[in-house]
């Protein structure tokens, strides 16, 4: 026996509440972040990811209070992302109790932030989030998008992943933008291509609709961890049910 | 001047909040202080020596704050818990930046060798070793069972994130191991000292149990 594959519930937070949308649109309220975090911890979640999708910078500080409160009650790793623009933002989140900080749009606009943050705080706490979409008009298969999937970058997602790891990213959160919220499963070929290209762990994200998708994410996509939101938020499945299911398929999980 | 029950040594390398929060959680009546002051370390009843990031930076920052002798003194004289780089720094030398450690224990710190990083199904294993792995206790349920493992199942999972591991020269100090894919030492103990590679403060119930054992531990 060895390292378990991780199940990571993701909480999209805006203005202090957890929400879930489809393709980053039509947000619905899913509850109080601290309560939800505690519930997932009780169910056996291996880690929690909070994405701050607050549009206005006025309310950005709310996430710090949420993280402080969760970190004093939940003793599993916490990753926080969204709105990270500079090294100082990384410091603030770590000081609030985040164990890892996820950097997305800023990594594209200013890759030096990834490099500086990894040098300062260690690669173990720097996650680069890559939002990718399948494209037809490029010499590669998957393109990196930013700004919640609205802006194309012209970057090859696989090459980009390699570059981010070379700058010090300790983990990659790979979200398939054309799958997110669709419930048709992860983009396993994308995840596999990135997983094969780099040495660091990959978290698969975007598109989970049932427990078989989690199994496929590991077996076909080579993911080290699987991230899901809506299947857990609305009580369709508990984390424990997800682990029981994955274990039936021979995947090592923490129970 | 209030007493310090537990000093968490802060040398400017990353986030110690989760360590102190977890200690406060298991010992709500104890005074837990995060400190970079050598006098506090000397005064404290118990000392926790965490660490993250790169070992060469950790050693440099430790020395920049004049903490080396206070750490070495505590490690030999009072209940002392090393975590992650706080374990690695106790050894002689690390492959990471070819840095010298504190040299309290003979042995070195090695990186997971790329050539070994394949599981039994031929799948690639990632570095850093990140996530929940099983921890096997050297003396589980035997006469030499260590007090810090009390109430923790043999093979319980703890949370890891690291690319380097310790190779003690003296096998007698080994108290626990994990497999990735080869067996490596994840816990050592000697007298008043216990040190682990995983993060008990992030390891849910198993980790809280270990911390709880530490705050009540009275080594002989």
From TrEMBL, chain A:
Where, per UniProt, does this protein localize? Cytoplasm
Provide the GO MF annotations for this entry.
imidazoleglycerol-phosphate synthase activity; lyase activity
Query: Which reaction(s) does its UniProt entry say it catalyses?
Result: 5-[(5-phospho-1-deoxy-D-ribulos-1-ylimino)methylamino]-1-(5-phospho-beta-D-ribosyl)imidazole-4-carboxamide + L-glutamine = D-erythro-1-(imidazol-4-yl)glycerol 3-phosphate + 5-amino-1-(5-phospho-beta-D-ribosyl)imidazole-4-carboxamide + L-glutamate + H(+)
Q: Which UniProt keywords apply?
A: Amino-acid biosynthesis, Cytoplasm, Histidine biosynthesis, Lyase
Q: Which HAMAP family match?
A: HisF (MF_01013)
Annotated transmembrane regions: none
GO biological process terms on file:
L-histidine biosynthetic process
Name this protein carries in UniProt: Imidazole glycerol phosphate synthase subunit HisF
Q: What class of enzyme is it?
A: lyase
Kindly give the NCBIfam families that the UniProt entry links to this protein: hisF
Q: In which pathway does it act?
A: Amino-acid biosynthesis; L-histidine biosynthesis; L-histidine from 5-phospho-alpha-D-ribose 1-diphosphate: step 5/9
- What family is it from? Belongs to the HisA/HisF family.
Q: What is its main location?
A: cytoplasm
- Give the annotated active site: 12, 131
Give the enzyme's EC designation. Answer: 4.3.2.10
A GO cellular component annotation here is: cytoplasm
Write out the function statement from the record.
IGPS catalyzes the conversion of PRFAR and glutamine to IGP, AICAR and glutamate. The HisF subunit catalyzes the cyclization activity that produces IGP and AICAR from PRFAR using the ammonia provided by the HisH subunit.
What is one Pfam family matched by this protein? His_biosynth
The record describes its quaternary structure and partners as:
Heterodimer of HisH and HisF.
UniProtKB/TrEMBL annotation, chain B:
The keyword Methyltransferase belongs to this UniProt entry's keyword annotation? no
- Asked whether the UniProt record includes Cytoplasm among its keywords, one would answer yes
User: GO molecular-function annotation terms?
Assistant: glutaminase activity; imidazoleglycerol-phosphate synthase activity; lyase activity
**Active-site residues?**
84, 199, 201
* E.C. no: 4.3.2.10, 3.5.1.2
Instruction: Kindly state which reaction or reactions the protein catalyses.
Output: L-glutamine + H2O = L-glutamate + NH4(+); 5-[(5-phospho-1-deoxy-D-ribulos-1-ylimino)methylamino]-1-(5-phospho-beta-D-ribosyl)imidazole-4-carboxamide + L-glutamine = D-erythro-1-(imidazol-4-yl)glycerol 3-phosphate + 5-amino-1-(5-phospho-beta-D-ribosyl)imidazole-4-carboxamide + L-glutamate + H(+)
Give the protein's recorded name. Imidazole glycerol phosphate synthase subunit HisH
The source organism is Methylotenera oryzisoli
Lineage per the UniProt record: Bacteria, Pseudomonadati, Pseudomonadota, Betaproteobacteria, Nitrosomonadales
Please name the gene that encodes this protein. hisH
